[in-house]
Amino acid sequence: MRSEKILFYGYLILISVEYVIAQFVSNESIKDVSTIYNYSEKPISIGKLNRKYRDILYEGDMAISYKQLSIIVNGSTEYRKAAKPRQREKKENGSDRVKRQAYLDQNYPATIWKNGVPFMFHESLNPIAKAAILKAIHFWYRETCIEFRPRTFQKEYLLFIGNDEGCWSTVGRDASQGKQVVSIGDGCEHFGVTSHELAHALGIFHEQSRFDRDDSVSFNPRVVEKDLLFNFAKISPRQMSTYGLPYDIGSVMHYTPTEFSIIPSIPTLTAIDTNLQQTMGQLEGPSFIDVYIMNQHYQCQDKCQTQAPCQNGGFTNSRNCKVCKCPTGFGGPFCQLISLSFSPFCGGLLNAEETSRRFDITIRQSTNTRSKTCVYHIKAPEGKKIIVDILRIDSKCIEGCYQDGLELKMKKDYRPVGYRFCCPESSRRKLISETNLVPFMVYSREDDFSVSFEYSFVSATARFDEETKTQDVLIENSDGVFVSDSSSSLLQKLGFRRHL
């Protein structure tokens, strides 16, 4: 079996040759140094934990069957042949007629766990791993319509194993296997990893495998060993589709920027929108898009006779059809409100003006509450856009910015993870929104985090170099949050105490 998989991985390399050669001759195959950050720490890398299994695991952590691998290879070959005339048509007509479908294979919906997911734990699992797995099971139960139950007599079930077996999983329900193994070995006992591997077992592939990924990230094959290039092959729409949902660089199913890189400081994947580079590679847990895709994949919307009137990209909660699941930053029954912050002393609405206001916030890890998130919305008049000028970031620079950081949603689609910043190199960065509303989150889960920025609104034709004046006041509260903003109405509303 091992030799058969190696042979088929070789085929995957061959079908990617044309793409790889194009990357070699492209001047954009290696981005400028602005995408290379001085990381003080890198997150858990599933690929590194599975290093000794690289020749038998697909894309670093998927134990797919010979049949699945054959389908993927054939589908990728056919799709590449069919894509050439479409690419010519796109150039000639200025449009792309490739339709977005769903995360499915030829056997869908037989490859989902329609009658629930029986599971059991092998004795090799340590207590920490069991707790992390149960947390992932509870998450996917709570956020979807999928049912889980301990195995009794079922022939088809998930078997979670441990010890030094790496972090990997089968993909989707495979009736031919019966028992399907999910490995949560040493070093894998984290919610980000267990939720990722369980998502594979439920039928979800990696985000960067999407056939439309080149619109969002560029791949640099120069820093990947030739026999590992198959890990960056794209899967055709016949086996993997997108439900019409946008590419999410902040997905828990996305590679880290330097995955499989032979030069640790040079990324293999670079965001086309460089403001998203620090968003890539988080293993905090599933994103809103991850949850949305899983709900679509398991047809959870069919559980509700009527759909809730969700706003701002939310969707109906299949476990309570009267309310919605909301993108990060939004709350209320229909995603019409600002989501709650960890403390009443932070979060709320900031009204932008033509004159810049300065906003400063510091969240300290000095109280019993470990995970702290303050949620704000910056709002401008209709027809205006918002400028955010990041002045200073004081934080540990970590790939994926999943521990402490600032997340700004500058796009009109609020569903994907936004621009995340946690590295001092991100200071003196100016951003402009696509709409008159910018949700942003300031979060601290491990260490102190501090950020300062200015914000204002401009017309669509305004230039970044307009001079503005700022004013601010300093406020603090008992929850370890120090906030400064020039909006006195906001301070009065939240009951902050001023310090002169």
From TrEMBL:
- EC number(s) recorded for this UniProt protein: 3.4.24.-
Xref: InterPro entries: Astacin-like_dom, CUB_dom, EGF, MetalloPept_cat_dom_sf, Metallopeptidase_nem, Peptidase_M12A, Peptidase_Metallo, Sperma_CUB_dom_sf
| Active site, per annotation | E197
Give its localization: Secreted
Q: Where is the EGF-like domain?
A: 296-336
Q: Which cysteines are joined by disulfide bonds?
A: C145-C300, C300-C310, C326-C335
Q: What remark does the entry make about the cofactor?
A: Binds 1 zinc ion per subunit.
Required cofactor names: Zn(2+)
Recorded GO terms, molecular function?
Answer: metalloendopeptidase activity; zinc ion binding
Ranges of residues in domain CUB: 346-460
Under the heading Gene3D superfamilies, the entry gives: Collagenase (Catalytic Domain) (3.40.390.10), Spermadhesin, CUB domain (2.60.120.290)
- Residues bound to Zn(2+) are H196, H200, H206
Query: What does the record list as coiled-coil region(s)?
Result: none
Q: What is its main location?
A: secreted
Q: Identify the Pfam families for this entry.
A: Astacin (PF01400), CUB (PF00431)
Q: Which GO terms describe its cellular component?
A: extracellular region
KW Secreted (keyword) present: yes
Which UniProt key words apply to this protein?
Cleavage on pair of basic residues, Disulfide bond, EGF-like domain, Glycoprotein, Hydrolase, Metal-binding, Metalloprotease, Protease, Secreted, Signal, Zinc, Zymogen
Q: Which GO terms describe its biological process?
A: molting cycle, collagen and cuticulin-based cuticle; proteolysis
Top-level EC class as recorded in UniProt: hydrolase
- Domain named Peptidase M12A: which ranges? 101-301
Describe the function of this protein: Metalloprotease.
> What is this protein's record name?
Metalloendopeptidase
